[in-house]
Design goal:
disordered N terminus; 423 residues; elongated; alpha+beta; Outer membrane efflux proteins (OEP); 10 helices; single chain; four-stranded antiparallel sheet; disordered C terminus
Amino acid sequence: MNMKLKWIAAAMAAGFSLHTQAAEFREYPDLPTQQVVQQVLQNYPSVLAAQSGIQAGEAVRERLDAGSHEFNVTGGTARRRIKDSGDNLRDWNVGLERALRLPRKAELDSALGQQTVVLAQNGYGDSMHEAGRKLLSGWFAWSRERSRGEQWQQQVDVLKQQLDVVTRRVKAGDAAQLEEELARAALMQAEIELQQAKLRADNATSSLKRHFPSLPLPPKPLAGEPQPLPRDLAYWLDLGLDHNHELLLARAESKIAQLSARRADADRIPDPSVGLHYLSERNGSESVTGVSVTIPLPGGARRAASAEASARAEMATQREALVLRRLEADISAVYNNAKASYASWQSATAASDLMQRNADKMARAYALGELGLNDVLLARRQAMEARLAAALVQLESAESRYRLLLDTHQLWPLGNEAEEGHH
């Protein structure tokens, strides 16, 4: 990264720091810290590319402010032969010409340059947002697979204890050898599930670390207790659309298309060229100094270019409207999912507790010789599945809520909205 890119990154980091203090982003025990998140997101390839995009946007602004017209130097020499006198005379000329950009075109070019920088800034924010989604998704994918592994490890431990109980009963003559074989088979099945869960957890860990190599992972995921969503959907829609980088990006693209259409319309009147010329004739005995003005005559190409730009501006306007509708639908879906998953977590937790108590009672009954092993193993299996379902729903509820907070810029700082939203 060259020095200018490093300066841009430092400026963005400073803006994030100020924005973080203003928004008072919280730390969550089941997520990476704010400092870690900013570090890994700012080093994500698409974000680094967007930083270069800001540099490119500033260069475009400078180019448009300067204009495309340049000075042209002309020169020539000739030798004149006069037949009557036989004289050979030398003539030469030099000139300086430049096209003059009309004032309206200069104003539009300046606006286009400024809007290009706004587009690049919103592109940076959108890249941060997408990288944040990638991080959040990968983090909970890792958490889910680790949770599966932990639940299956608990199941293996429980079935080992159950096997010990069955073995003691067989030795005491209170149970048939078949029951020991059944208990051992159930343990072996659980161990197979545990190995598969560990493999999936390793794959999830590898995927997360490959996308975010500097992301530190805790020894085990911490599952925070889900929280209900405050406010109604209208509140979250307003919050989510207020400084949504994807929407701001679409608006900036639409604005650029509209300015480009106005610029193409202005270009239907060609820019005149003004020149200063000096001519020396007859070996310098005569000289001529003059000024020239060249005005190109517009043709059909300029009208067609203006019509094309107008059509593209309308296309960009409709794309902006489409982005707005899709974002409204996305935020609504995330909001509904967060509400539903919280209710599901409450039900799954209650069911898990009930199934676990039932399994414990049946295990005690088997130890007293009051119940068959098949019933106990079935209860153990059902309790484990209920416990796993509750754990997964708990993670789903947390992820849905965090996703809503992320999309509404309440979870992590994703860009300098104070600057981006007012151009």
